[in-house]
Amino acid sequence: MNRSILSKLFFKHFAWGISILLHPLLMPFLGVYIILNSGNLYLLSAEGKNIILTITILSTFVIPIAFIPFFYFQKLTSSFILSDKQERILPLIVTASLYYLSFYLFRRIGVPLFIQAFQLASTLAVIVTLLITLKWKVSAHLVGIGGIIGLILILSLSYHFNLFLYLVTASFLAGCIGFARLSLNEHTPGQVYVGLAIGLLIMTGTLVLF
User: Fold this and answer.
1) DSSP label of 163
2) Of 72, 69, 67, whose CA–CA distance to 96 is shortest?
3) What is the DSSP string of 132-161?
4) Most CB atoms closer than 10 Å: which of 6, 63, 108, 110?
């Protein structure tokens, strides 16, 4: 096996690893974790933080991801990867519903408003992604990381937290995700840039206006 083939295999596996480790369904949990640990925004007990994080991981990752095998075995999708634009529509509907459920639960139990706003923004981002997907295949991965960058920017500018390292890391990861999605031929450059813009704009706009 020559060096060129080995290099292609390495980059392909690297791209799949990035796509899995930085899956868009993990972004709400990451965002809530950042909010709870970036500064003294809210003086919540450890138990209170754990409740919020548990609701987030269950409603925005565990339950949505559990639907994917169900869709596959019911022949509603042809693969677990959901590469086809049309096959993403039903999963996005389910995901948007569960994201809204998380937002609703946060309001019911009196979770701090900023976290509610973040979850509402995440829900709106999924809905916009769904609407665009009806006509065009936008990158959900970049929507997710764009939202995280928007969150970090608002926390830094509005609350004066020193999150420069967070911002640099998130921007670097956005570049890695974009490279991965392009390398796998899952998206075009336009779909990557639009996805990033959607996540960034919806998150910053919602957090400012909520």
Assistant:
1) -
2) 67
3) HHTTS---HHHHHHHHHHHHHHHHHHHH--
4) 63
